[in-house]
Design brief:
Structural class: alpha/beta
Oligomer: single chain
Strand order of the largest sheet: 19-20-18-17-21-22-23
Number of strands: 23
Radius of gyration: 24 Å
Bound molecules: calcium ion
Shape: globular
Mean pLDDT: 94
């Protein structure tokens, strides 16, 4: 006989989440004799006390909405019977810093990575090809295949060749203030630690985005198209036809491959990890299992001196009052509020509908609205102080827990997290997504065992056992931490790397097209 299991996160909650995979039927008895008034699916909320119109619905000890009709004890609470509260007013959130105890540093854990000249560490050894404009994409795809077939076998220490095609570069308002976001994103992705500092840019020649702008600030730039150059223009007049361009690019690639092939893994400290946390296809379990387990692992990495960041502005906006006190200084708190305000304005300009995030899948998984989603989402940041807040497309500067302001869209967020400098990615899902990136390993964590069983070859880590008390958050947090080190060392591959499943990178371009 399977027990009826519902989970309450905070003693003040007046709802609990159904954990049973098959849901619970009308008449089922939960907790202290509460009888279900109707069938309630897995992940959805049971009302634990009768609510009058206007009463607060409380989960995680926070108000996630207000009853819009009388809701009897034992009833199903979902988006139809609760109304959405307003987001916290940014100007009214005071900076009252939380008390942080200084945790004992975590020592003795290492991984094997590729150390770069700038001090960053790679977890893969990749030849990255950057492009300055979409016009070159056909040739870049052609060349990527040719390099993979003809050159990679000659350089066995290099894992892959990865070309970054995008829709930016021309037909854009290059001087509009917002243009800086996609431009610095492309530039910083080229500097991702997994490319080993070997920068190779293919441009057309007449585009608005000059490829020189994509080189690192302190770069010893050689003359264009000389044998040492990092930039090649297809319109270069010395090329007669397509195959001469191809030869030119192949020569350039070989120069970089020779250097990359000398990279060897060496023992590195956990302090060299830069882990980007993201979720997608969340459900009500995400905030109970996958996100707290990932948050525990995040705390371990920070205690060991490493860097973790979380993102997704629209999914933290409604919980920002809980993040402001966690900022290390008033200046960081202000940066956080400024990023939220910028995004509020961006959404308002487009007349965005606040109820459109959550998705139909989130709602099917039991998340009634964005407030409930946000409260579960921020749990993956762990409990460390926030040392810095970074604008979209910027690189992180400080070790510890950072907030990298990005949209929540999985591939847009992932693209900006690559620019921020992540060398490992943890991605938590409840509904399931085959999301993967070719530039860094993506560890996919499922929030429930039902998904992990069905998608046994797509999920890397199942946090579901936490829901049934089979394992604790702490136990599973340590397991995830060890898995991160194994994968960062190249000892194990994530599902998307085994299967070669990769999303396109998508730039965040808030600026106008012309
Ligand atoms: Ca996301």
């Amino acid at each position: 006989m399977i027990k009826n299991i519902v989970i309450k996160t905070n003693p003040n909650d007046n709802v609990a989440i159904v954990a049973n995979h098959a849901g619970l039927k009308r008449g089922a008895i939960v907790l202290t004799g509460i009888v279900l008034e109707e069938d309630i699916p897995m992940g959805h909320k049971v009302c634990l006390q009768t609510l009058n119109v206007g009463d607060a619905v409380i989960r995680y000890g926070q108000t996630i909405g207000f009853a819009n009709k009388i809701i009897e004890k034992g009833s199903w609470i979902n988006e139809s019977n609760i109304s959405l509260p307003q987001p916290p007013n940014l100007e009214e959130i005071p900076y009252l810093k939380s008390e942080f105890s200084t945790p004992k540093p975590l020592e003795g854990y290492t991984f094997k990575g590729y150390r770069n000249l700038d001090g960053s560490v790679g977890t893969k050894n990749l030849l990255g090809i950057t492009t300055s404009v979409q016009c070159v994409a056909g040739i870049t795809n052609f060349i990527e295949n040719k390099i993979r077939k003809e050159l990679l076998p000659l350089y066995p220490n290099v894992d892959e060749v990865v070309a970054f095609n995008h829709s930016y570069g021309c037909g854009i308002a290059i001087d509009a203030p917002a243009a800086i976001i996609p431009i610095r994103t492309i530039k910083h992705i080229a500097q991702n630690p997994n490319f080993g500092g070997e920068i190779m840019i293919i441009g057309l020649g007449c585009e608005k985005l000059r490829p020189e702008r994509l080189l690192p600030d302190a770069y010893n730039q050689f003359s264009i198209n000389s044998s040492q150059s990092s930039i090649l223009y297809l319109q270069d007049e010395s090329f007669e036809g397509f195959y001469e361009m191809v030869d030119g690019i192949m020569e350039m690639a070989e120069r970089h491959l020779k250097k990359l092939n000398q990279r060897k893994r060496e023992t590195c400290s956990v302090a060299d990890l830069v882990v980007g946390m993201q979720c997608g296809g969340s459900d009500a379990f995400s905030g109970l299992t996958g996100n707290p387990v990932s948050g525990f692992a995040a705390d371990l990495i920070v205690k060991a001196g490493g860097t973790v960041f979380f993102s997704e502005v629209t999914e933290v906006r409604d919980a920002v009052h809980l993040l402001v006190p966690r900022c290390e200084s008033e200046e960081v708190a202000q940066k956080l509020k400024d990023e939220m305000a910028w995004y509020d304005n961006y959404l308002n300009q487009g007349n965005a509908d606040r109820s459109a995030n959550t998705t139909p899948g989130n709602k099917g998984g039991g998340l009634s609205n964005i407030v409930e989603k946000a409260l579960g989402s921020i749990v993956k940041s762990g409990t460390s102080p926030i040392v810095d807040v970074i604008s979209p497309g910027e690189k992180i500067l400080k070790k510890g827990l950072n907030f990298v302001a990005t949209p929540a869209s999985d591939f847009v967020c992932g693209t900006l997290q690559l620019a921020a400098g992540m060398n490992m990615h943890v991605f938590i899902t409840g509904r399931g997504t085959p999301y993967g990136l070719n530039m860094v390993p993506v560890i996919k964590v499922s929030s429930n065992t039902k998904l992990a069983n069905r998608w046994h070859d797509l999920i890397d880590f199942d946090a579901g056992p936490v829901a049934f008390g089979q394992k604790t958050i702490e136990e599973m947090g340590w397991e995830l931490f060890h898995l991160i080190l194994e994968i960062a060392s190249g000892n194990k591959k994530v599902a998307t790397d085994k299967l070669g499943l990769y999303n396109d990178l998508v730039l965040f371009n808030p600026g106008p097209l012309t």
